Amino acid sequence: MEKTFSFTYQSLVLDDLPKADGDLCRMALQTTHGSYAPYSQFEVGAALRLSNGETVTGANQENASYPCGTCAERTALNYARTVWPDVNIEAIAVAAMQQDTVTGTPPYPCGLCRQSLAEVEHRQGTPIRVMLVAADEVLVFSSAECLLPLAFHSTDGHF
Ligand code: THU
Asked: Cβ(63) to ligand 1 under 6 A?
């Protein structure tokens, strides 16, 4: 038997997004200024919109011992879980700057961040809209699961 996984995503310009989504993307761009990235010079900002109306942000924080560094997405996710453990995340916007310029390519999240997003989405039971901001477009994914098909979930009976 052959099985297929496919998904559809959108490419929009920032000003054509619904206001709440556009604002979240602008917040992600602003949050790049909170990055500490002396090693990669790649400054990433993430902004989460929570179902209680709050916005939570995070930026990548690097370390001379490289694996210690944390991506913007997980900085924000961990902060949200710490402060509002029972509040669902509706959307995440991610943006990146290099040499004070918004990147031409969207900041595709790394595998660790995809796994983290997938677990939060699975746990809360509602989709997380993912918006990846580039200089001339915003990619919009209706669910974090699109970014990590067949994600590992301990609650699926693996243990
Ligand atoms: N980074 C993020 O913060 N998020 C991403 O989606 C991709 C990569 C960070 C990790 C590291 O600090 C720098 O960007 C370069 O890889």
From this structure: no
User: Is the pTM higher than 0.90?
Assistant: yes
The reply to whether ligand 1 has any atom less than 6 angstroms from the CB of 43 is no
User: What pLDDT, on a 0 to 100 scale, did the predictor assign at position 65?
Assistant: 98
Atom of ligand 1 at shortest range from CA of 109 = 6
At 154 the pLDDT is 84
Span 131-159, pLDDT tens digits: 999 999 999 999 999 999 999 988 666 65
Three-state SS annotation for the chain? CCCCCCCCCEEECHHHCCHHHHHHHHHHHHHHHHCECCCCCEEEEEEEEECCCCEEEEECECCCCHHHCECHHHHHHHHHHHHCCCCCEEEEEEEEEECCEECCCCCCCCHHHHHHHHHHHHHHCCCCEEEEECCCCEEEECCHHHHCCCCCCHHHCCC
CB distance 121 to ligand 1 below 6 Å: no
Can you list the domains of the chain with their CATH numbers?
18-147 (3.40.140.10)
Let me know: does 87 contact 126? Beta carbons within 8 Å: no
Distance 107 CA to ligand 1 centre (A): 8
